[in-house]
Specification:
The chain is mainly alpha-helical. The protein is built from seven helices and no strands.
């Protein structure tokens, strides 16, 4: 009987992993699409991202339902319980990351009909790093890979540095020409939202370390690991 129970529990964990991978892939695609929409001020693409947001909420609900059922029926302890609790936290972070991608899409809608005041170089670079972080954070969970989780802290520093650089450049553009102020403010908000997606990916790394070690570090402030 114990063998059957364990097999059922492992199957449930595999389903949780698959749902989290699906959520992570959805966030990656939403980020890529939102940046494409921004670079081409493509309002239709932006609206499609906004309209697709409910899918991520649905996946989070499935994870909550499945994890709750596993806790109720299997009564896991120690690391098995941490796997489920970590899945809940990661799903919440991914759902928030999706909301931030929607924010970027909404900023694109606000730019409808405008030409960009500067070529986008650092913003896409930021988004590319954060996309990688999103993928790595989920892989760290699935593989229970602490080294990969800590790598996110280093990448998060790169994102923060790019965000600060973008803010300085946009401030200069505002000072050069007051007509740039409105769009520069929007682009700065895009950068801030990308940065926050990176922070949530780092939070997922923290959940992985908690899962493996039963201790939760603050990867957003650990820069020399």
């Amino acid at each position: 009987m114990m063998m059957t129970t364990r097999k059922e529990f492992d199957h449930g964990l595999e389903q949780l992993h698959n749902l989290l991978v699906e959520m992570g892939t959805f966030v990656e695609e939403a980020l890529v699409d939102s940046m494409k929409a921004l670079s081409g001020t493509d309002v239709e693409k932006a609206r499609a991202i906004i309209n697709n947001d409910q899918h991520l909420n649905h996946l989070e609900d499935q994870i909550t339902d499945l994890g709750s059922k596993l806790i109720a029926t299997q009564q896991p302890v120690a690391k098995d319980l941490r796997r489920i609790l970590a899945a809940f936290k990661i799903a919440s972070d991914l759902e928030r990351m999706g909301d931030l991608c929607v924010n970027i899409a909404k900023f694109v809608v606000r730019l409808e009909g405008q030409a960009l005041i500067k070529p986008l170089i650092d913003l896409p670079r930021m988004a590319e790093i954060v996309q990688t972080m999103t993928y790595e954070s989920i892989q760290a969970f699935v593989q229970e890979n602490v080294d990969l989780a800590y790598k996110l802290a280093v990448e998060d520093d790169q994102v923060d540095a790019l965000c600060a650089q973008i803010s300085r450049e946009l401030l200069s553009l505002m000072m050069e020409n007051p007509r740039n102020i409105t769009q520069a403010t929007v682009l700065n908000l895009v950068a801030r939202n990308i940065e926050r997606i990176g922070d949530h990916a780092t939070n997922i790394g923290e959940s992985v370390v908690y899962l493996v070690t039963n201790k939760r570090p603050d990867l957003n402030t650990q820069h020399n690991i």
